[in-house]
Amino acid sequence: MNVINGKKIAQNLQASIKLKVDTLDRKPGLAVILVGDDDASEVYIRNKENACKEVGFYLEIINRFDNISQEELLFEIERLNDDDKIDGILVQLPLPKHLDVNLVNETISPKKDVDGFHSENIGKLMQNKPFLHPCTPKGVMLMLESIGVDLVGKNCVVVGASNIVGRPMACELLNAKATVTICNSKTKNLSCKLIQADIVVVAVGIPKMIQSDWIKPGAIVIDVGINRLDNGCLVGDVDFESVRNVAGWIAPVPGGVGPMTIATLLKNTLTAYEARI
Ligand code: NDP
């Protein structure tokens, strides 16, 4: 079994972005909007802030109270759409319940949509003509590339079908000519599907749900899940300790997909910058 070191792969990607940024007169600009004071969101934003500093991006963090109105938030996004210093806009999720996430995603210009959630960017991915990719699935693809796996004809099972992870993940794998099964909460006989998979990607949000007897020996297992246990520990959706004895490769939590998501956000921002100059 080999552990996929997402942190290291992300550092290498960030180093290559920094080299590029060092040659630029105007630095790529990222705007992050944080609504409210959710603890987890603040941690994610701090990580993004550090990563932006490391590669030399211009960063604007916009904090708004959780009673911001829908109109005020959309106005803020429109302002950033028109701001020439800004190449990428990200609204940290989750948002308070009174705000419409879809409307927020659709208001961000597709050219600055560095989370890759706008329907135009999702549509392009579906048609295998991607521009800005959803960060987490693209991060997983870069991880798979870094271990040299040939995806053509591989049986892949994606567990989880959310708009931000599972669905675009399945699409990325399909675009790479893998054979893809996508599972959701109503899937029957999940273990029978998993045991046939060469590559398993799990994004469900249930701690240690995937056990070793569901995994084909030698399979590649990518755990996207991030779950905080009552004792404060961070665990994934895969039971790492048992699955590591069966898998050929496994991405751990923490230190796996998480850093790749941030590195891909930076890559998207650079892509958006390059498309605007
Ligand atoms: P969502 O809650 O939006 O989606 C969960 C998906 O899992 C749904 O499609 C749901 O099915 C499916 N599901 C639920 N129970 C089962 C089950 N028993 N068997 C099969 N599928 C099931 O979550 P997200 O996609 O946003 O996030 C998933 C996990 O990934 C979370 O732990 C989150 O914290 C983490 N995450 C990590 C990131 C990273 O950078 N590492 C980035 C984003 C998320 P249905 O569609 O039927 O409801």
TrEMBL record:
Gene3D superfamilies: Leucine Dehydrogenase, chain A, domain 1, NAD(P)-binding Rossmann-like Domain. One of its GO terms (molecular function) is methylenetetrahydrofolate dehydrogenase (NADP+) activity. InterPro entries: Aminoacid_DH-like_N_sf, NAD(P)-bd_dom_sf, THF_DH/CycHdrlase, THF_DH/CycHdrlase_cat_dom, THF_DH/CycHdrlase_CS, THF_DH/CycHdrlase_NAD-bd_dom. Residues 134-275 form the Tetrahydrofolate dehydrogenase/cyclohydrolase NAD(P)-binding domain. Keywords: Amino-acid biosynthesis, Histidine biosynthesis, Hydrolase, Methionine biosynthesis, Multifunctional enzyme, NADP, One-carbon metabolism, Oxidoreductase, Purine biosynthesis. Pathway: One-carbon metabolism; tetrahydrofolate interconversion. GO terms for cellular component: cytosol. Its EC number is 1.5.1.5, 3.5.4.9. Residues 4-115 form the Tetrahydrofolate dehydrogenase/cyclohydrolase catalytic domain. The keyword Ligase does not apply. Pfam families: THF_DHG_CYH (PF00763), THF_DHG_CYH_C (PF02882). It catalyses: (6R)-5,10-methylene-5,6,7,8-tetrahydrofolate + NADP(+) = (6R)-5,10-methenyltetrahydrofolate + NADPH; (6R)-5,10-methenyltetrahydrofolate + H2O = (6R)-10-formyltetrahydrofolate + H(+). Catalyzes the oxidation of 5,10-methylenetetrahydrofolate to 5,10-methenyltetrahydrofolate and then the hydrolysis of 5,10-methenyltetrahydrofolate to 10-formyltetrahydrofolate. NCBIfam families: PRK10792.1. HAMAP family: THF_DHG_CYH. This is Bifunctional protein FolD. It comes from Candidatus Vesicomyosocius endoextente.
